[in-house]
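Hypothesis: this fold can be encoded by more than one sequence.
Test: take the structure tokens below, design a sequence, compare later.
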């Protein structure tokens, strides 16, 4: 099989239709409405316009499309039998993709936890891992015959950090290192879900992590230690246990990890999803500080509209680190998100960004890393979480007043690249 060219989206960021088809409330509905923030109530209205979006995917020529299922569409209250209307939506989407020869790549959890589960503690509650496994089985009952790659979780580090440690994302808890149980319970849910997916004959199973090389910004030993600590938290904490190791020691209460949990989490995988945006600059904190590191800007690089530095070499470094660190245990990699926020339908900066990152993937492959796919984040401009609609990541511009979709310069560029590589 050749290299997979794809694009990625997620349910709450594009679907809208939040009160349709029997969907229950998610933590993002509650968080945005409660705080008077922009919401995903309508987003890209993909729930109604998915045929148009599938046509855009087909014209783009991607061989795979990564989307996520909204858990509250399947289990409006977070447990119990599958909601038929919820399943029917994804059933139609999957069939529409297959009709165009596009492989469905399905993420089961991209941060839209049913509110009912948050009311019982969310990912801080161990039971949520079991609820996630149950939900995964329901989705697989319906779609295992047609989905090519199953991704259990999207970026558990980001969900734990912004959702439970700093409170910038739903569910809005600011527990700092007290958030670590939310990491373990997500990973436990991942491992339990792998078993449910395997039992239903899933074609291939993966998890997607967000990775960021930690670059010390300072010459002192304390800066090196701070960077190593950040690396352990951001990168190793979510990868070591997948490949048979214990967690790095960064403050997780051992009582949270029950006997047998690490074996469940280390269930063999067919692929590892890697989301990369940029490295992180790290320094030792000055004086008494709540965290053992300070995150500092990386200067001297071009920046996206998000202020994120554009550093394609960081992706090559990261892929090389994964291979070197995990060796034979590492399954084939798919870069499941890579992209940037820029304004405008004519977006030469996005072309430069993607070109640089795709070259970095090629270089990593030449270095010997087994990378099988590259997915651009994102197909459409969409709801960018705490940033609302102000950051545009799409290959396709969306006018959020009219829902008119306009392919950007980068869409044509990616289409041509895919064609040329066939
Ligand atoms: O939009 C997000 C996505 O939901 C997860 N990965 C990073 C993207 C850009 O911030």
């Amino acid at each position: 099989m050749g290299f997979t060219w794809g694009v990625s989206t997620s349910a709450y960021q594009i679907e809208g239709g939040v009160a349709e088809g029997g969907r229950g409330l998610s933590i993002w509905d509650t968080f945005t409405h409660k705080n008077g923030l922009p919401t995903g109530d309508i987003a890209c209205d993909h729930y109604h316009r998915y045929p148009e979006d599938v046509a855009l995917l087909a014209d783009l020529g991607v061989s795979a499309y990564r989307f996520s299922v909204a858990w509250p569409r399947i289990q409006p209250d977070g447990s119990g039998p599958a909601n038929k209307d919820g399943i029917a939506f994804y059933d139609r989407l999957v069939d529409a993709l297959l009709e165009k020869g596009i492989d469905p790549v399905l993420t089961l959890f991209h941060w839209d936890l049913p509110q009912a589960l948050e009311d019982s503690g969310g990912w801080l509650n161990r039971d949520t891992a079991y609820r996630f496994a149950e939900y995964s089985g329901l989705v697989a009952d319906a779609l295992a015959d047609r989905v090519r790659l199953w991704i259990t979780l999207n970026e558990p580090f980001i969900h734990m950090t912004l959702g439970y440690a700093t409170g910038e994302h739903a569910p809005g808890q600011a527990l700092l290192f007290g958030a670590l149980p939310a990491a373990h319970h997500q990973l436990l849910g991942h491992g339990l879900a792998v078993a449910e997916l395997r039992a239903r004959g899933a074609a291939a199973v993966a998890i997607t992590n967000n990775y960021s090389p930690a670059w010390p910004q300072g010459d002192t030993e304390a800066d090196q230690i701070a960077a190593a600590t950040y690396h352990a938290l951001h990168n190793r904490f979510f990868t070591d246990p997948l490949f048979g190791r214990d967690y790095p020691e960064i403050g997780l209460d051992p009582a949270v990890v029950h006997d047998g949990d690490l074996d469940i989490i280390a269930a063999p995988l067919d692929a590892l999803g890697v989301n990369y945006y940029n490295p992180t600059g790290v320094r030792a904190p000055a004086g008494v500080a709540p965290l053992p590191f300070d995150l500092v800007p990386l200067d001297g690089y071009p920046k996206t509209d998000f202020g994120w530095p554009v550093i394609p070499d960081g992706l090559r470094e990261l892929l090389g680190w994964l291979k070197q660190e995990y060796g034979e245990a590492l399954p084939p990699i798919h870069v499941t998100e890579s992209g940037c926020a820029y304004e405008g339908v004519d977006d030469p900066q996005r072309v430069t960004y993607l070109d640089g990152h795709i070259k970095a993937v090629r270089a990593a492959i030449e270095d010997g890393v087994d990378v099988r796919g590259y997915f651009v984040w994102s197909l459409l401009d969409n709801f960018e979480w705490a940033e609302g609609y102000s950051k545009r990541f799409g290959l396709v511009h969306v006018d959020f007043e009219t829902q008119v979709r306009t392919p950007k310069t980068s869409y044509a560029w990616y289409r041509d690249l895919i064609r040329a590589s066939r």
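The chain has a mean pLDDT of 98. Residues 4-421 form a domain with the TIM Barrel fold (CATH 3.20.20.80).
Hypothesis status: open.
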